[in-house]
Automatic annotation (TrEMBL):
Keywords: Repeat, Transit peptide. Residues 21-69 are annotated as: Disordered. This is DYW domain-containing protein. It comes from the Eukaryota. PPR repeats lie at residues 281-315, 316-350, 382-416. It comes from Oryza glaberrima. The lineage of its organism: Eukaryota, Viridiplantae, Streptophyta, Embryophyta, Tracheophyta. GO terms for biological process: RNA modification.
């Protein structure tokens, strides 16, 4: 049962030390009991002394040592405080801590300037050292310094950053006055410490104290707590409180609600909040776009993006990074280029994340020159940037360039990770570089941190299978230091199907069907093998298994984007307004390629045709219709880019190669297994997929 907000905000949690204390913390219980008694705050400083002071020199009396500590004059103390502030401002927090030791030893009861305490609090929070934080607070109290409201809020943040939840709660309870920032800080610290229920309990106390007049920024923190819990019901109750108090005009609160519903999987509720915002900022638009993108609702995200542009809202780097994922899924290269140009015109350069996403987008759709240009112009690159470019070269059959980039990466002293090795092994697989693949795989085995995983074994298995070396491929499965995965058996099944090795194919299929009994592609692979081998008895057995398990081959579709509009096609599709022209063009193309020697493939199960249509003509596959439409709708120099969710059949693969010869066009098809880059009668896959 999903917890309700009232149950989550049990007031008894407010006074229960177990709601806030760190688990298995010995110091927490003692400090909590002190707080319950209302005693003044006296945390014991745990700051270790400098190494040279740990051993007192023999013959030096305690009285002399005390007198020497107090010899620090006002001028020297002021100079030391100025040094502490400068070190903290420069981020040299370790040195600021060491300098504080001198001030603490030379003037233990002399109050320091407020700016110095602020610097020390900031350094302790940055270092996350509880001992340092306790020593600073001890000095504040022992010197008689009286912090103001803002200073106490900083102390609270320091303790929360150092994981001192019990001590922070003591400070919070002992504060004479608490502002909205105080409540928000304490609640935020509990959320960051993994205690969202405690944060909601604190919010309930505030709500009852102020009579429902809580500040919007504090409500934002409460929404964060609900988001951390993942409780949609509690979120809806909190949303009702917001609606009753009319806080919708606060942009931060609206965006927090959108994010909360997004992470709870309630996209309709998120959109309702978004539509109810009177003046939408770019942050609100970005929040809703990110929600759609995260849940794979690419078309909804694209529609919202168009509305954003039509409304005159200026996109920023976050908008672009979010939409790049959408453009990549839908293959909208022109949209990505226009958005990128808009950013450049407004002087908003992309960060490393946006640039890497742009490289990845261009790579996925075969624009390798554009991808390389973006990569070369990046002011800063990380390993993910290199991996994206190497993978792009590999997917489009440019194995040699992928290997060159891999070697350049190593020459620059960057350590490759498992993703890097997977990208370069895929490049060897797609380009048929067996020896290079074996060498790189051997490199992985020599480093304990990059020991090959199942995905790397699957690459090598498919690489061997592509060259017909099935014994070596099967040997890799037998020698693997772990239980073979579905990807490994799938690679062997593909190789066995292409090279028509029934024994290995049957073995692989049995293993796959045991692991993935509901995956239709495994049955299709096996059916194609039996059909091509003329084994009708085995075909009937597989078909009966499909029927018994209630599985069938669903109709798939292909789509192409022309002038920023998606056009979808199904097998023998007649719904498109230009159907007559499309079919005339396709029939004309088939006549031309037959004159060049095209002969249709027979005996293949067709992935985009329903079972009862398998015996009908296959000349009108969805990808052929998409290409024919692209040819009549674009200029002669335009590369056609088609996306489909199923595996490209052999006959369509052959047709595409002939079409590129006849039309002198490039065609890129992204099917369910990989990219196929057709150019002048050849394909980047090397006829192995």
């Amino acid at each position: 049962m999903e917890p309700q907000l009232a149950a989550l905000c049990n007031p008894r949690l407010l006074h229960s030390p177990h709601a806030f204390l760190p688990k298995a913390t010995s110091t927490s219980s003692s400090s909590s009991s002190a707080a319950a008694g209302g005693e003044a705050l006296k945390p014991r400083p745990r700051l270790p002394p400098p190494q040279q002071q740990q051993q007192q020199q023999p013959g030096v009396s305690h009285h002399h040592h005390t007198r020497r500590r107090r010899e620090l004059g006002a001028a020297a103390l002021a100079s030391l405080c100025a040094g502490i502030e400068a070190l903290a401002a420069e981020g040299r927090h370790d040195e600021a801590r060491d300098a504080f030791r001198g001030a603490r030893a030379g003037a233990p009861f002399t109050p320091l300037p407020a700016s110095t305490y602020d610097a020390l609090v900031a350094s302790a929070a940055a270092l996350r050292e509880p001992g340092f934080a306790a020593a600073v607070l001890w000095h504040v109290e022992s010197s008689g310094f009286e912090p103001g409201q803002r200073a106490w809020n900083r102390v609270l943040r320091m303790q929360l950053a150092c994981g001192m939840l019990a001590e922070a709660r003591q400070v919070f309870d002992g504060m004479p006055a608490r502002s909205e920032a105080t409540w928000g800080t304490m609640m935020g610290g509990l959320i960051d410490a993994g205690r969202p229920r405690g944060a909601l309990a604190l919010f309930r106390e505030l709500w009852e104290e102020v009579g429902g007049d809580a500040a919007p920024r504090v409500v934002v923190v409460a929404v964060r707590a609900v988001t951390a819990l993942g409780s949609a019901r509690a979120g809806q109750q909190l949303h009702c409180c917001v609606a009753k108090t009319g806080m919708y005009e606060d942009q931060y609160l609206s965006c927090a609600l959108i994010d909360m519903y997004n992470k709870c999987g309630k996209l309709d509720e998120a959109r309702r909040v978004f539509d109810g915002v009177p003046q939408k900022s770019v942050v609100a638009w970005n929040s809703m776009l990110a929600s759609y993108s995260l849940h794979g609702c690419s078309e909804e995200a694209l529609d919202l993006y168009h509305s954003m542009c039509e409304g005159g809202v200026d996109i920023d780097q976050f908008t672009f990074s979010t939409m790049l994922r959408v453009f990549s899924r839908l293959g909208l290269l022109e949209h990505a280029k226009q958005a990128h140009a808009g950013l450049i015109q407004r002087g908003l350069p992309l960060d490393i994340v946006g640039n890497t996403a742009l490289v990845d987008l261009y790579c996925k759709w075969g624009q390798m020159e554009d991808a390389r240009n973006v990569f070369e112009r990046m002011p800063i690159r990380n390993l993910i940037s290199w991996n994206a470019l190497i993978a792009g070269y590999g997917y489009h059959g440019m194995g040699q360039k992928a290997i060159e980039m891999f070697e350049e990466l190593i020459a620059e002293g960057i350590a490759p990770n498992h993703v890097t090795f997977l990208a370069v092994l895929n490049a060897c697989r797609f380009s048929g570089f067996v020896e290079e693949g074996k060498r790189i795989f051997q490199l992985m085995t020599q480093n304990q941190r990059t020991k090959p995983r199942a995905m790397h074994y699957a690459c090598i298995i498919e690489l061997f299978g592509q060259q017909g070396r099935l014994d070596e491929a099967y040997s890799m499965i037998r020698k693997a230091p772990f239980i073979p995965t579905a990807n490994m058996w799938g690679a062997l099944l593909t190789a066995s199907r292409i090279h028509r090795n029934l024994q290995l194919a049957r073995l692989s299929a049995e293993q796959l069907l045991a692991m993935e009994p509901q995956k239709i592609n495994n049955y299709v692979e096996l059916l194609n093998l039996y059909i091509n081998s003329g084994r009708q008895t085995e075909v009937s057995k597989v078909v009966n298994t499909l029927k018994r398990r209630g599985l069938c081959i669903h109709a798939a579709c292909s789509w192409i984007t022309v002038r920023k509009k998606d056009h979808r096609f199904f097998f023998k599709d007649s719904l498109h307004p230009q159907s007559s022209e499309i079919y005339r063009k396709l029939d004309s193309l088939l006549k031309e390629i037959k004159q060049l020697g095209y002969v249709a493939e027979e005996n293949e199960l067709l992935p985009d045709i329903l079972p009862d249509e398998q015996k009908t003509s296959k000349v009108y596959h969805s990808e052929r219709l998409a290409v024919a439409f692209g040819l009549i709708s674009t200029s002669l120099s335009t590369t056609l880019r088609v996306t489909q969710c199923h595996r490209l059949c052999h006959d369509c693969h052959k047709v595409m190669k002939f079409v590129t010869q006849v039309t002198k066009r490039e065609i890129v098809i992204r099917d369910g297994s990989r990219f196929h880059h057709f150019k002048l009668g050849t394909c980047s896959c090397g006829d192995y997929w």
